[in-house]
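Issue: copy button drops trailing tokens. Both records pasted manually instead:
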Amino acid sequence: MLDSQTQRGNLTVDGITINISSMSEAVSSIVSAAQQGESFSVCTLNLDHVVQLQRKSDFRAAYRRARFVTADGFPIAILSRLTGSPVERTTGADLIAPLCAEAGRRQIPIYLLGSNKLTLHRTARRLAKRFPGLKVVGSYAPGGNFDSYSEEADDATHMIRTSGAQLCFIALGAPRQEIFAARCLDEISGIGLLCIGAGLDFIANTQARAPSFTQKLGLEWAWRMVTNPRRLAPRYARCIAVIPRLVVASLPQIVNARIRKTA
């Protein structure tokens, strides 16, 4: 069910509260928590996640432990406006640059986890060059069958813990990155864990991101599906199928928002 919250105008989608309304709020909240030495995770909700949350209890449990949740999906941002609790689309990939800029200025060391060795090497080099003062204290590319509770995950957790990082960018794809971040919350103190999907690949140019105009129009998903229809067409079909249910569930809030607007 999608409903608005009275406190801070937060939005809840199928039981998951989006408590970050904009990119600027996300950056300031994450940097503040990191500077205070807090442990936290960051998730970015989109329709694919909504679909998976219905089927995977460990994924839902990981989401419920996240300190900060943003609206990644464009349809979710639209629904938020219709219900009178507008949020700005804030993706994990888009968070990397402004967070690294602040991390460089405020001497917050970072760690990179995910993708592959080539991507991590290129990303670390490009981020350090672009953002003066940024310190990348380590990186690790797990195997393709990475499991969040495996021996390899034990090693990854140890490397993050001993690196001295205060922010860790996790690029494992959903739901693995969110589940691993939730595990780290129990075993690592004083670090923020950000689930960013393919964000590191975009920086390294090992994976092409949709053109900026498609992102602005909310059509990034269409571009991705055209470029990889066999893998993504079924996923987006499931995402589209969930939209009517969310709209129907939100009708009372939409009506109330329209009444308030015309009053």
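Record 2 (pasted manually too):
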Amino acid sequence: MIFFLYKLKDIALYVSLFAIGNSVTMLYGVYAGVNVNAYLIDAIIGLSVVYKALDNLGAYQRWFRVQPNTNVATLVFGLFHGFGLAAKIQEFEIARDGLLPNLLAFNIGVEIGQLLALGAILIAMGYWRRTAAFLKHAYTANVAMMCAGFMLIGYQLTGLFVS
């Protein structure tokens, strides 16, 4: 996600958008009893990895002459991810008393953890970007990330159809 982001405030925006989407559907899913198949959600997570790798590689601009709105994509993928968490939370049959503050605290904690981890990665990326081979390595890393995303999609869809 942060291959071509250079400022912590940009990373914070993406983390916040993802957390908002995640929180909305997680809370809705838990309180409304919506249970989405985990294989399907994990396949969509694989799709998000492929989407971002293609974005990093500039594929959308080359293929369609358009740059998708990454803010919207981040929010949408957060919405899907939240349904996956909601399904897992429902498996635990947690008491409703104090559930809302606990779920919100969980999401805030996850957001803080993501900011700290991505902040550290941003520092390491800053050193990597100064090397002459960065663009070549970034290309290779994004192709590998895309392949991993396709593998996750295939693995999860196989699980969906065989289960």
